[in-house]
Amino acid sequence: MSTLLEVDAIDVAYGDFRALHGITLRVAEGETLAVIGANGAGKSTLLKAIAGLLRPIAGQIRFAGHNVSHTPAHRRVREGIALTPEGRRIFGSLTVEENLKVGAYGRRPGPWDLTTVYDAFPLLAEKRSRKGAHLSGGEQQATAIGRALMSNPRLLLLDEVSLGLAPVVIADIYKALPMITGKGTTVLVVEQDLTQALTVADRVQCLLEGRTVLEGAAADVTREQVQAAYFGIDEQEVG
Length: 239
Ligand SMILES: Nc1ncnc2c1ncn2[C@@H]1O[C@H](COP(=O)(O)OP(=O)(O)OP(=O)(O)O)[C@@H](O)[C@H]1O
Hints:
By secondary structure, the chain is an alpha/beta fold. It has helices spanning 43-51, 73-79, 96-103, 114-120, 122-126, 137-149, 167-174, 177-182, 194-200, 223-231, 235-238, and strands at residues 3-14, 17-28, 32-36, 58-63, 66-67, 81-84, 155-159, 186-191, 203-208, 211-217.
């Protein structure tokens, strides 16, 4: 598998506060990587840097073999990087279908259109004429993911899909993931929900206070190792 995304030793700061310290990660074409970590670990900051919304002060981001560190966010979308931000940010006054069409602006060629998005999220098909403001949290999340897919990304960045949603709704949304990856879309998902992260991902990388503290194949890391890394506990202390 060829490497699609290479993040090399990036530092990202908000003023004097350094949120990421030398983060390195790789995502191969077609794989799903879960970045996990507690509140404030730096997960959203990392996604924003990959999407081009924040500029690292050190390090490099390479996508599909070339350096995109200085490429503005809108051009990264055209190159195939799409972000579903934390908080969803869909348009409340637009219908589901209108929200999806917004994502198609400047789209790349590929498998994603209204039909395939509705196939992936049948709950949206039923609500296609409903205004964003009148959707449940889960429906808003599905709309936000569908909108990102409409650009036909090579890499889909998902920030905190599960935030504020009931477990059954989370499971419903994650059901779409095999179809998304099955169409060749590479996924980088940021999660606080360990169960979901370990279920959907091929590999996991755990951040703590802006540093990588654990990485490995999802099948190889134990839940205890992940929990210890997540909370910053030495493994001996876990029991
Ligand atoms: N706009 C900002 N200005 C200043 N500090 C920020 C800003 N955004 C985030 N931070 C700080 O950067 C660190 C990393 O935040 P980030 O949002 O990336 O964490 P996270 O792992 O995504 O957690 P969460 O799940 O809470 O979003 C935190 O200490 C946070 O307080």
